[in-house]
Structures are given as C-alpha cells and as structure tokens.
Write a structure and sequence with these properties.
Layout: H1 2-13, E1 21-22, E2 33-35, E3 38-42, E4 47-52, E5 63-66, E6 71-75, E7 78-83, E8 94-98, E9 104-108, E10 110-114, E11 119-124, E12 131-132, E13 137-146, E14 152-158, E15 161-167, E16 176-184, E17 194-201, E18 213-215, E19 219-220, E20 223-229, E21 238-241, E22 246-249, E23 252-255, E24 259-263, E25 275-278, E26 287-294, E27 299-309, E28 320-324, E29 327-331
Parallel strand pairs: 3-10, 12-20, 21-27
Antiparallel strand pairs: 1-9, 2-4, 4-7, 5-8, 6-7, 8-9, 11-13, 13-16, 14-15, 14-17, 17-18, 17-19, 20-23, 22-25, 24-26, 26-27, 28-29
Domain Ig-like: 117-215, 227-307
Pfam families: ICAM_N, Ig_3
Signal peptide: 1-23
Length: 332
Amino acid sequence: MFMHFILLVSYSLTFLCTHQVSSFDPSCTEFPVFTPSALVVKYGDPANVTCDVCQKDCRGDSFGLETPVGEVRQNGTTMIWTVDRLTEWDTYLICYYNTDDGDQCTSTVDITIYQPPESVSISFVNHTGMMFENQQYTLQCSVQNVAPVQSLTVTFYRGNTALGHLQANSEHKKPVNETFTLNITPSREHDGAQYWCETKLELGPPTSQRPPVVTSEKLPAIVHYGPELKEPPNPDVITITEGDTLHLNCSSVGNPSPSYTWTLPTNSPSYSGSVLTIKSVGFEHEGQYICTVSNTVGTVTKEFNIDVQGECCQILPGKRVTEVQSQYYFTN
C-alpha cells in the first residue's frame, strides 16, 4: 500500500498539461478512461468528471481516484468527481487500478483553470499628447490578473484594422499581470483614429463556449503634420486683363490648422486668408504675391507673379501691335 501511495504522489508532481494521459506499463491491458477527456473551468465555477477505471482487470478495492479537492463517489468501477467551486490552481485528477501482479495502471486528465483579465488598458510608452507624422511611438496593452497567460492572445487595433497579434512567452497557471507592446508610425491619415487592444483566452476545443474576450478603452490619436498646398504650383507669370477678377488660391491642409501671411506688391493692403480675391484688377495690382503657410510643424510658401494687360492691348498669337491715332490695332 505504501508503494501505491508513493507512485500516486509522483504522478501528482509530474502532472502533464496535455489531454488524458495514461502511464505506459506493458502489464496494463487497459487504462482508466476520463469523461470528458479534458476540463476547462473558470476559476470559482463548479466542475465534474467521471472515470471508468477498468472493464475486466479490477479486483476488489484496488482502484480509485486521487485528487486534492472536491468529492469522489464510486458507482461500481466508475469514479465520479465533483467540486462546487474550483479554486485550487494546482488541481489534478489521477484515476488508477492495481493489477494482480502489483503494478498500477493510471490515467490523468488535463484541467485548465482560467480567469479572464480583471482589467485591460492601453497607453503610449513615455508619451502623452499629440503625435507627429512619420515618427515612431510604442503602444502598450496592460493586462491584469489573467490565467493561464500562455493561452492569452492580444490584438492591437486602429479603428477596425488589426495591427498585430501578440502572445506571452511565459507559462504560469496562476493569475499574473502582463504587458504587451507594439511600435507604430502614424501618418496624417491616422489623425482622429482610435487605438485599442483586445485580449482573448484561447482555451482549446474542450470548451464549447466562445473564448473569453476583454477589451481596453479607446485611445484617440492626434497626429500633427506640416502644411501641404492643395493646388499645384502656378506658372511663372499669370497674365490677366485689366478689370477682370483675380483669384490667388493658397489653400492648404495641416494639423494644427495653418495660418496664412501674404506679402503683396508695394502699397497693397495686407491680407491673411487662404484665397486672395481682387474683383477688378488694375495696373497697380501687378507684381509678385507671396503666400506663406505655417503651423507649429512647418512652413511652405507659394509665389504668384501677376502681369496686368489693358483690354485693348492683348496680343494675339501671330500678331503685332501698331498704334495709329491713339488706337491699338493687330497686324500680321
């Protein structure tokens, strides 16, 4: 009997985290069978399992089920284990019988006790406030009190787009805190996007329920970038007829919103909008207009060179102008 006890203790200390495992012994013609073959139980929930010890080799009381928790009942050669609240992280079940030769035939069952994270949060590592385009930042997903951590998958998201999947490289049966990080390089298209992380316990096929999922709060991103002109560059000279309306478009995008400063020809009034409009152009409006667009990230400029011509003096292609009696005429 003492030898049987030593063997049972040895099995409990070397319990394998696989599905039902039977010890190999050539004298064993059969092994105990657990139903179900594996258990997945939330910490604190009830659990039960049955073990059919043997079909033909059992003798008298030379069989049983070894476990540190719960209650074991016997019905013929079937052992029934139940527990009202499973709170022992190192729970094991060993079902056995002894042969006539004094050998012991045993099976164990895989028991996964899990606990979804108590909390999941997301933040930036060593950074607060706005971000700048094309610079690298590190997202951090902090997971509190989860088990088993080796079954946890963490996914980082930007909006509905998955950015990466990470798993822990440590193995613990009991709840632990774990931190996962992911590097990102935001662009202007990501301004206003929301970053978040999702944790999922992948517990394997023994459980019929969906994997427990816990998500973090949403972390809004503010991405700053320098001004960029909406309109293409202008030709070297913009020719306009006296009296026509002139529009000079310097519209830009940027974050924060850019400001505009215009450098105008001599004696022209100052202006600070994105589009400069002169309803009726005169010769006094000729010259160079420089638009400077700025924000806290950068500055761009756009130049406009304006040439004003009289309505009667526009030169048509292939023509030259001759003045007769104060009138302008086009001649070949």
